[in-house]
Amino acid sequence: MNMIGAMNTAAFKDIPGTYVFTGERAIEGRHLNRFCMSLMSAAHRTRFKADERAYLDEWPMLESQKQAVLRRDFEALLEQGGNIFFVLKIAAVDGRPTQSVAASFAGQSTEEYAAMMRNGGRSPAGLRSISGRF
Amino acid sequence: MARITAGIGSSHVPAIGAALDGGRTAHPDWAPIFAGYEWSQKWLQEQKPDVVILVYNDHASAFSLDIVPTFAIGCADSFEPADEGWGPRRVPVVHGHSKLAWHIANCVVLDEFDLTIMNLMDVDHGLTVPLSLMLGQPAEWPVKVIPLAVNVIQYPTPTANRCFRLGEAIARAVKSFPEDLNVQVWGTGGMSHQLSGRRAGLINREWDTRFLDQLTADPDALRTLSHEEYIREAGSEGMELIMWLTMRGALGPKIRELHRFYHVPASNTAVGHVVFTPEG
User: Fold this and answer.
1) pLDDT for B82-141, tens place per residue?
2) Which H or E run contains B101?
3) CB pairs under 8 A between A and B
4) Residue A6 pLDDT
């Protein structure tokens, strides 16, 4: 059987607009993701909502990560080590559906995105590879 | 002796749970999905399995990034529905089968699959949505469930082949359990989807269809696919499909497909569903 070798992180980076949550990203996003996980507790959610900046300052995150949280820039959060399932907890605090976040990544309104999904979703054609290998 | 009588594959889309819990099953966005599981619900009522080994993934509910087990088996008596940030789903508590779970742990660890033992764990939509799709909305789940959580979030995730071989090891373990139990293995998650980046909303119907075809006809083709191919073709969250291979591995070399359903709903994820029985 043709077995798989070491995890090919270079191949991951060849997939357009796709964040694969490797150890490298986990290191960068460690405190950001811990902050996000803290929002699982109602008491923490209340404190965050009362004063977002003050709550963020309790975490040793990069200033650029805090700014991305404050402006709900999910693309910037993922670029700085956020994991999608963790940063979605910020959207949950806002009562914002996952689909609205997904749409924002692609620069679409939720309505445009939902219409695309009802029509069978986004085709992978032309979105497989930056290098053109696939 | 315990025996594995069937395997089920199912997506676990959270919006389906929300539609069900919110009484929106007749809404045109969701009705086709519930229709696609009608046959399976009737079939399952006739099958009356004693235990389901439910292979699923947690979504930052029971596991933060502080501890990331590659494979974790639920050995507790019961598992509470997790609060995923908007209150737990109002579904029954999931009852486990501690003796069979511990037997599987004993066997497969000696078989060199190093499972993490979970004696306290909440279960999120990854586990409860497939239960709802297959069992509807009963006051109590009519089957015991052994949760088997697979890390598909923090890389390195296990290979497709490792998931398949774990399924084979689980089958060996179940066969050596002395109680007479009707056991099913469910592989959940997928199919193609991606929640982030400019490929958000990616659906690959052609690839998903081939995946379903090859599950029966040529699972070796699926177990040797690389991580990058799963991500490239099925999207970053399409990686969840490796969990279907644990179910497939547990069924033995030849299987029969009894039922298949595929539908792309208005949310983010292609819903795939199959019912298999082992042959010989």
Assistant:
1) 998 878 999 999 999 999 999 999 999 999 999 999 999 999 999 999 999 999 999 999
2) helix B98-110
3) 173
4) 59
Q: How far apart are CA A61 and CA A89, in angstroms?
A: 17
**Looking at the predicted structure, is the pLDDT value of residue A121 above 70?**
yes
Sort strands B182-188 and B51-56 into parallel, antiparallel or unpaired.
parallel
pLDDT the model gives residue A2: 42
User: In this structure, are residues B238 and B157 in contact, taking their beta carbons and an 8 Å threshold?
Assistant: no
The DSSP secondary-structure symbol of B52 reads: E
Q: Is B64 on the interface with A (CB under 8 A)?
A: yes
For residue A98, give the nearest of B61, B156, B268 by CB distance: B268
Question: Are the Cβ atoms of B267 and A99 closer than 8 angstroms?
Answer: yes
Are B126 and B56 contacting, i.e. CB atoms less than 8 angstroms apart?
A: yes
Q: Whole-angstrom Cα distance, residue A97 to residue A110? A: 10
Contact A47, A58 (CB under 8 A): no
Reading the block at residue B104, the tokens are 């599987």
Q: To the nearest whole angstrom, how far is the Cα of A37 from the nearest Cα of chain B?
A: 7
In contact, B96 and B79? CB cutoff 8 Å: yes
ipTM > 0.90 (yes/no)? yes
Flag whether residue B246 sits within 8 Å of chain A, measured between CB atoms.
no
Residues B11-66 pLDDT 10s: 999 999 999 999 999 999 999 999 999 999 999 999 999 999 999 999 999 999 99
| Cis peptide bond upstream of B191, omega within 30 | yes
Answer whether residue A67 shows pLDDT above 80: yes
pLDDT at residue number A3: 45
B131 — phi, psi (to 5°)?
-60, -45
* Enzyme catalytic residues of B: 125, 193
Q: Which residues in chain A touch residue B204, judged by CB atoms under 8 angstroms apart? A: 123-124
Q: Which of A12, A15, A38, A89 is the best residue to mutate to test the B interface, defined by the most B CB atoms within 10 Å of its own CB?
A: A15
pTM score above 0.90: yes
Name the DSSP class of B183. Answer: E
Q: List B residues 93-152 in contact with A (Cβ-Cβ < 8 A).
A: none
For the residues B164-177, what does the mean pLDDT come to? 98
The answer to whether the beta carbons of residues B133 and B15 sit under 8 Å apart is no
